[in-house]
Every structure is written in C-alpha cells, then in structure tokens.
Automatic annotation (TrEMBL):
Tagged with keyword Membrane: yes
Annotated protein name in UniProt: AAT family amino acid transporter
Region (Disordered): 1-20
Entry keyword set: Membrane, Transmembrane, Transmembrane helix
Taxonomic superkingdom: Bacteria
The keyword Protein biosynthesis is assigned to this record: no
Organism expressing this protein natively: Gordonia desulfuricans
Transmembrane segments: 29-52, 64-86, 98-117, 137-159, 171-192, 212-232, 244-265, 285-302, 314-333, 353-373
Amino acid sequence: MAATTGIEPPDETQVAPPSAATTTADSRWVAFGLANIAIVVALSLATWYLLADPTTSPWNFYPLPFNAALFWAILFIVFIGFNAEFHGFDRWGQPARGLAILACTAVFAVVVTWLLGSGLGAIFPDFAGSREGGLGYFTGALFVLFGFGTWVMVVLNWQHWPWTALGMKQPLIGLCEIAFVAVPTLALYVVLGLPAVSSSIADPPMSVDTVLGWFYSIVVSVILTGQTLDNWPWKLFGGGGRTALAATIGNVVVGTGIYFIMVPLAEFLVGPTATTELGSVLHQFPAQIGVCWAFWMIFWANGFGNRFAPPIRAVLTFALAIGTFLLYYRFAAQHVLHEPAVADGLYGNALGFIDWLVLWTLIYVVGFGSIGLSRLR
C-alpha cells in the first residue's frame, strides 16, 4: 500500500505559504499511525491475557497449540487478503467485513490446528497434539513458515504473475495461486521442515533452529524487497516471468545473506552469557529479529501509509525492529506477558507475541480498515 503525496509541481509565478489545513493534513498520517499502533497493542494484550498468558489465561494454550493456531491464522489472512485480495469480503461494509474476516480466520486456524493434532496425529505420531511439549502442533504449523515465503512472494514480488498475464480476475487468480504454489511449498516442507522435527529422522538436512532462522530470513527478504523497497531490484528485470525468476533466486540469496548477518547481530544483542546458554538455539534468532522487522514493515505500509522513500523505510523499520526486539526480550516478555526465561536475561519467544501483533495488524488495520479512525485518515 504505497502512499502518494499528491503534490503538484510549483507554479513559478505564484508561490504561497502552506495553509493550516495543508499542514494539518501533512501531519495527520503520524496521528493515524500512532492511533493504529495503540489500538493494535491494546487488542493484542487483551486477547493475549485471555488466551495465552501463562498466569492470567484460564486455558493452558501457551505456547502450544496457541502459536500453531496463530501461524495458521496469519496464513489464512495471506490467502484471502494477499492472494485473493479480499474478494467477496470487499462487498461488505464495515464492521461486517472486519467481523467476517475475524470469524473466518479464527475458525480456519482452530479447525486446521485441531485436524492436524487430533486427526493426522492419530495416523502419524509426529503430528500428534499429545506429543511432549506440544511438538506435534509445531510439526504441523512449521508448514506455515514456508508458506509465508512462497505465497507472499507470488503477490509482492511476482505481482500475481502469470495469472494476470493470462487475463484472469479475482477470485480465480487467488485460487490458482493458492493451489499451484502449494506444490513447491509442500516440497520445501517435506525436504527441509518435516525432517527437522520428525522423531524418526536422526540426521535431518538442517536442524529446526537453522530452518527457522534461515527460511524466515528469506521471508524477511520477500517483504523487504516486495513491499518496503517497492519490488526493487527485481522490477529492474522487466516484469513478468523475468522478474518472478529474479525474485525467486534473489530472495534466496539475499535471505541467506540476511541470515549470516543476523546470527552475529543476535550474539551482540543478547550478550555473551546468553549466547553461551542458548548454544545452537541461537541459529533461530535471525527469525526472532526478523519477525520484529517483518512486523514493522507490514505496519509501516498499512498503518503509516508506507511514507518516505524506500531506503528510508528500510532503515527506519529495521531500527524500530531492533528496539522492539530488545524491549520484548529484556522487559515485556517477562514483566508484561509473563513468559518464562530462555537464557540469562531473556524471556519468551518473539515468534509468538510479535506474530500476534502482526495478526492483529492485519485484522484491525487491514481487515477492519482502521475502523473508528476515519477522522485521522
């Protein structure tokens, strides 16, 4: 959702100072964004205390199956919002549209989590919800990690190619994307994801921590290039299949580079003692930093109208991500969210609550259209 300034070239013969109305309009986007973030945080905290908080929630959903349902909920929003562009939902006014999106998302997330944990889990023990530590729920939800990369990339980087080139319209575009992209997504999951969490495979190609850290870095590359940088540099390849191929290869290369940069950055941010305690788990921390960056890139595009030039957006959202990472792990996870310690001075798992912020951003800001904030829009 790129913002446009609407500023015309100045008339050299008539230059007037900006009016009060213009100044107010120019600054209104800041108030709109801050109001959005306040509401998203409030909604996230209220529902967290009800559904997930280890001390206040009446249920024992933390961390699983809560996180599993959360991942499936975000993927459902990707399906109906990114791939299908809210076809069908966009015919309804607010708040009916937002309520329908919220209800459908919740039902999809709960049903898929239950079917995998209790249905498929009864046949294949790796998926069983009764697996120690809720690992069976995580096994099924790990599929979503790869879907965040593939289904989002065909929208942000491929620009719905080749379906638009074939003259298709929604919802056929979305249905084709969901169906055809499921094949490579499933292949990635079977080759890289499932072996890392299967109890029957002793020597997987990658550990689960490396899979999380590396592939989430690719997801970050997809969002960074496709949304924050306006599909640069892939759009330089001429569009269509050439841009799609360049983006696919390029995001793997850029994402791998992000992963190798994020590992030492994570060591620096968590400190030497926590680094030693975490051991190999540190290799998933590029995902922990990455989800903070993904949140701010998504929120900046939708809550703040994607203001500023692409390079400034990239730097600004990354700076906000680092601040969010430190605030979460050093303070909020322990004192606000009541999550357990994971290492010296570190608490929680950012792939839980920060993704919860992402979900509520997509529901409130996008699904509900920031209802109640029309005067600030």
